């Protein structure tokens, strides 16, 4: 079992690759930024986020905005191997609540979040860029 560790700036391109590859594989996100742009977004957010990774090379990535208790990212190279649960345990550690948004077509993630104790609190409409509707989900200890 690969350990989970705080991300470093050197990990950010690998995190961006996980996001990029997932978005391109969905079939419902049509305006995926290029890797350089995604890397820039994550680097810009890096100082204000708690970012954890696992694997070498990075195979899992978690980002939390501690000011809002928002889980902003949970991406895995290979879902279904327990890494998501381990990263979620890290996200919950020391917190009483978290919230996130997830695309409605992402049935696998929605099921995972429900198993992790999240409940749906709102449905957000599709955006103008063509991305599908999202659910807001919340967890409380």
TrEMBL record:
Keywords: Acyltransferase, Transferase. One of its GO terms (molecular function) is acyltransferase activity, transferring groups other than amino-acyl groups. Residues 2-141 form the N-acetyltransferase domain. Its EC number is 2.3.1.-. InterPro entries: Acyl_CoA_acyltransferase, GNAT_dom. SUPFAM superfamilies: Acyl-CoA N-acyltransferases (Nat) (SSF55729). This is GNAT family N-acetyltransferase.
